[in-house]
Write a structure and sequence with these properties.
Strands 1, 2, 3, 4, 5, 6, 7 and 8 form an eight-stranded antiparallel beta sheet that branches. The protein has a single domain, classed as Umud Fragment, subunit A (Ribbon). It is globular. It is α+β, with helices and mostly antiparallel strands. It is built from two helices and eight strands.
């Protein structure tokens, strides 16, 4: 039987930050559902690397600090000195951070079963496209559901008069 030890995030990420600052890469198993379906919790492993010399680009998945926590989300846009991130699985939530809050980017993903693909490979682009289309469809479905509920409530009020 394997002994599994849980280490608090602040300790893990302090070590990750130190290794990244030394130019090393770090592999971590993904926890959480905010990047689903691109990354799967407790199944996929990400290889974190120091930020590239050419800078961050839209579409990169970045590890950054936000409100005292470490978050791994996709970079949506860069607004002057502010970075805007969102999880692929999040409906409306965005995080805003400074460049100094960005710690590392995902250079490679290992899916459950051992298949690996690198950042900006054809497979990365295909999986990103799929993930973002799913997010768009979810957003539309939620909007339509909300609109239907609002119409029902409005019709109900008008008809009861």
């Amino acid at each position: 039987m394997t002994n599994v030890k849980t280490i608090p995030n602040d300790i893990v990420f302090a070590s990750v930050e130190e290794l990244i600052a030394e130019g090393e890469t770090v592999e971590l198993r993904v926890k959480g559902f905010s990047m689903t379906p691109f990354l799967r919790s407790d199944r996929d492993v990400v290889k974190l690397a120091p930020l590239p010399a050419g800078g961050l680009r839209r579409g990169m998945v970045v590890l950054f600090r936000h409100n005292g926590k470490f978050v791994l989300h996709r970079l949506c846009r860069i607004e002057s000195d502010e970075l805007v991130f969102a999880g692929d699985g999040n409906y409306r939530t965005e995080e805003h951070a400074r460049l100094s809050d960005a710690m590392a980017y995902v250079a490679e993903v290992e899916k459950h079963g051992g298949r690996r693909f690198a950042y900006d490979s054809a497979e990365w682009r295909l999986r990103t496209s799929y993930s973002l289309k799913i997010k768009l469809l979810k957003t539309i479905a939620i909007y339509l559901k909300s609109a239907t509920i609002i119409q029902y409530v409005i019709k109900g009020r008008f008809m009861s008069r």
